Amino acid sequence: MLNDASGNQIILGNGGILQRSDYISTTYGMKKGQFADTQSNTTLYWWDGNNKEILAYTENGLLPLGSLKAVRNYLNEHNENTHPYLFYDIKNKEVISSVVNNESLVYSEQIEAFSSIYKFAPLYGTELSDQVLTTNNTRLYKQNETTGNASTLFGQSMLPKLQYTVNAQNMFPKVFDIQTFGGRFYGGDKNTVPGIDNLRFDYKTPLKQHSTCTGTAVTNREYDFRLDIPRNNNDSYGGRMRGKTMECELSSTSNSTDFSLQYIVTKYRMSWS
User: Fold this and answer.
1) H-type alpha helices, 9-90
2) Potential cystine with 187: which of 86, 100, 195, 234 (Cβ 3.0-4.6 Å)?
3) What is the CATH number of the domain that holds 181?
4) Distance of alpha carbon 242 from alpha carbon 14, whole angstroms
5) Which residues pair with 81 in a beta bridge?
6) Half-sphere exposure of 179 (CA within 13 A, CB side)
7) What is the signed CA dihedral for 59, 60, 64, 65, rounded to 10 degrees?
8) 182 lies in the same domain as 239
């Protein structure tokens, strides 16, 4: 209760127990931990993994779209190991759901029917005001700019890459000898260092030197990964990488290999000649 300017008391609200609670449905819900849902201006959509159904909730109530729009047989092919995902394309007024066979089933609000199946199943998406960006972890796609498929490649292949500069004691010229690093690497065939054989190492210095090698040159030294920095243009003699700084790039060359790094140490010595 509050007092107004005249000193009269005003009741702003009363606390109490809800008189009743109403369920939208006791049949349909969302499978624990999936959180596959999206929404338009008028409708809430979600995937029910237990009933293998796409639901739409509007001011008119709950609608099981799969059953009403005759796609139940398709939705029944959902595999429990599939990561379901729904997102809304505001520009085209479409709900895109990836729940079956690495494909995307498209529901059009304009015609109130399922209109397409895209041969692309995004793992994640970002809904912007005029477009949708989706990814399958290795590439970024801009939805609905069709060139034969539902999605076109937006930029280049998004393989893991790390760029950094060795800049210690940058007033003095140095000779760069060895790098050691720790981390985890996934994919690949090398037994001693799984996945690291699909990595590429590039080095450049201000002296226009350039050297490169693959992860096959890396050795495992008591939980430290060790790499002899290649010589300029891989010269057999001379040509060590030298300069006040060195630009480094570590990248994956395969969609099946990604990595995470905990630390990188570059060993060098002063160059007095």
Assistant:
1) 65-68, 72-75
2) 195
3) 2.60.120
4) 77
5) none
6) 24
7) -80
8) yes
Return d(Cα 42, Cα 8) in angstroms, integer: 42
Q: What digits encode the pLDDT tens for the residues 109-137?
A: 999 999 988 877 777 777 776 677 777 65
The pTM (predicted TM-score) of the whole model is 0.49
Cβ count within 10 A of residue 226? 16
Contact 187, 257 (CB under 8 A): yes
Helix (H) or strand (E) holding 101: none
- Closest to 248 in 3D by CA, of 172, 167, 159: 167
Q: Is the dihedral of CA 212, 215, 217, 218 positive or negative?
A: positive
| Residue carrying the six token digits 């790098």 | 179
Q: Are 90 and 40 in contact (CB under 8 A)?
A: yes
Residue 44 pLDDT greater than 80, yes or no: yes
- And the tokens for 149? 């498929």
* Separation in Å, CA 226 to CA 5, 194, 200, 221: 78, 14, 14, 7
Q: Return the closest-CA partner of residue 139 out of 117, 163, 118, 120.
A: 120
SS3 of 67, please? helix
Both 143 and 167 in one domain: the answer is no
How many domains in the chain? 2
Is 10 in a helix, a strand, or coil? Answer: strand
* Domain annotation covers residue 243: yes
Does residue 103 lie within any of the structural domains? Answer: yes
Quote the CA–CA distance of 97 and 114 in Å, as a whole number. Answer: 11
Query: Cβ neighbours of residue 227 under 8 Å, at least 6 residues apart?
Result: 178, 179, 180, 181, 201, 213, 217, 218, 219
